[in-house]
Amino acid sequence: MNPIPTDRTNEETFHAGASFRVQGVALDLEGITSNLGLTPTDAHRHGELSPQKHPYPGDIWRLDSPVGDTQPLDSHLDWLAERLLPHREYIVSLKKELKVDIYCWKTCYTEQANLYISSHALRILTDLSIGLDVSLIFLPDEADKRG
């Protein structure tokens, strides 16, 4: 996940991103990479230390969308869909023993914002029969609070 930017322009009102995640115990990280033909953005094992020096609670294989974080969530989901939908059967087989999902995040720099995802972009969820985990963070500017 990207850090919170401190050099936003006035035109930027949000940052967003999406990841495909496979989580579980004793993941075959190399096997997932080989079967998908994709290099993960991050892969780690249970107990390894995070950058914050906390042990990870489980194994994970994660692929982040590289689409710029000023792009809407649809763009991130479309990027993931292009790469993952050709591997539908394999991904569905992973779901038998592992947690497989899409994680999206959106940081909003205004007091009011919306979360919109088109039905076209949501096809990745229905085609792969996986869930969506969304984090929404609202950080209105100090000037907006004084308003």
What does this structure look like?
Residues 1-10 and 143-147 have low confidence and may be disordered. The protein is globular, with a radius of gyration of 17 Å. Helix 4 (123-128) links the parallel strand 4 (99-108) and strand 5. By secondary structure, the chain is α+β, with helices and mostly antiparallel strands. It is built from 5 helices and 5 strands. The protein has one domain. A 5-stranded mixed sheet has the order 2-3-1-4-5, with helices on one face. Helices cover 26% and strands 26% of the residues. The protein has helices spanning 29-36, 73-84, 88-94, 123-128, 142-146; strands spanning 14-24, 42-44, 59-64, 99-108, 131-138.
